[in-house]
Amino acid sequence: MVCGGFTCSKNALCSLNVVYMLVGLLLIGVAAWGKGFGLVSSIHIIGGVIAVGVFLLLIAIVGLIGAIHHHQVMLFFYMVILFIVFLFQFGVSCSCLAMNRGQQEVFLNSTWGMLENKTKTDLESQLNCCGLLNVTSSRVQFEQDLQNCPALCKKASSCFTCGDMMLNHASEALKILGGVGLFFSFTEFCVQVDES
């Protein structure tokens, strides 16, 4: 098969958009599965993941239809939206790679304060830990979380804090997320260069 002109770009764009559609469906499915099995109780988290999945799915459909029908207006809007997504994704990926442990602690503290008590207790049960971080700046919050903690380790009085458990894995997870985000942001950039 000879690949020249718009045919090669069309096939590459169609393939990439099919992958983006699958990722969008995967995000929607995983969020629904997590809610169905009770892994995540916060409707805000589930709603956010589903919204990102639907957005990615719609953008991929616009790109796929634009590529198949060689529709210039659709491809233009697809490129503009993909460029905005690229900028956002590139910034978030670089932030993930640059975040140190102190910044992670500040982020966890601020996020923990915004969580509902049900979400906190679900997290403590899933991770088998109690409270976030046992530090003087949030001592009152830690004591309150410790009293409400439903984790099994509390009965054995050998609980780790949830903050320590999350921070142990956070730096590795942030590096993976940053790397994957950079990879996909550059695929979006290559699609834009290929389109123009």
What can you tell me about this protein's structure?
The protein is mainly α and about 200 residues long. Helix content is about 80%, strand content about 0%. The chain is built from seven helices and no strands. Helix 1 packs antiparallel against helix 2 (about 45-70), helix 3 runs antiparallel to helix 7 (about 160-195) and helix 4 packs across helix 7. It starts with 5 loop residues before the first helix and ends with a helix. The model has no long low-confidence stretch (mean pLDDT about 80).
Count, helices: 7
How far do the termini sit from each other?
Answer: 24 Å
Strand content: under 5%
Using only CA atoms, what is the Rg?
A: 21 Å
Order of helices and strands: HHHHHHH
Describe the sheet with the most strands.
none
Structural class: mainly alpha
**Per the principal axes of the C-alpha atoms, what is the gross shape?**
elongated
Poorly predicted residue ranges: none
Helix content: over 70%
Q: Based on DSSP secondary structure assignment, what is the total number of beta strands?
A: 0
Taking all residues together, what is the mean pLDDT?
A: 80
Précis, in short:
The chain is mainly α. The chain is built from seven helices and no strands.
Describe the SSE topology.
Layout (H helix, E strand, L loop, with lengths): L5 H31 L6 H27 L2 H27 L2 H14 L2 H11 L11 H10 L13 H34 L1
Helix pairs in contact: 1-2, 2-3, 3-7, 4-7
